Amino acid sequence: MNPADPASAPRDVWVFLLIRCAGEAGKHFDAVGMWPRVLQVVKDGWGCPPGVVLRPGEAIESAAERVADALGIRLPESPALLAVDQQPAIDGGPDEELAFVVDGGAAEENAFQGLPRHEVDIEWSAVEDLERVALVHALRTRLLAVETPLLVEGMPRTPRK
Questions:
Q1: Rounded to two decimals, what is the model's pTM?
Q2: How far, in Å, CA of 57 to CA of 26, rounded?
Q3: Can you tell me the distance from the alpha carbon of 102 to that of 130, in angstroms, rounded to the nearest whole number?
Q4: Residues 161, 149: Cα–Cα separation, whole Å
Q5: 5-57 pLDDT, tens digit each
Q6: Residue 119 has pLDDT above 80, yes or no
């Protein structure tokens, strides 16, 4: 790594699955439906969607399949890319992260109860409890069929003038 060359800075590239199940009563997002809950993997009190680091040369869909296989589910026929989120590096903090959020489909609330738990827990989180803002945008993309957002630090990138 050459410190003078920003292109050589470390970057983690993740592929996350957005998996949803029926929402809770009273959590309406409009007059006809409810926000579904989102599957989260919780470790050390911090939740994130199920995901893997993208291997060199690996296709995003192949990485999404690895996550689905680990969870014992099948991906939708043509899994959609729901969001791309860049988390820039912070001085003295973690490396830059680029995350692709892929549609993992819907599941029943009890679908993951039989998975072995090794230092992590799996839970369904309400939208207001999601720690990664990109998941809210990805869910919005899936439910409302809007354009896939490009996010920086979880927020939509403002257009250049």
A1: 0.81
A2: 45
A3: 16
A4: 18
A5: 555 557 899 999 999 997 755 444 444 456 789 999 888 778 889 999 999 99
A6: no
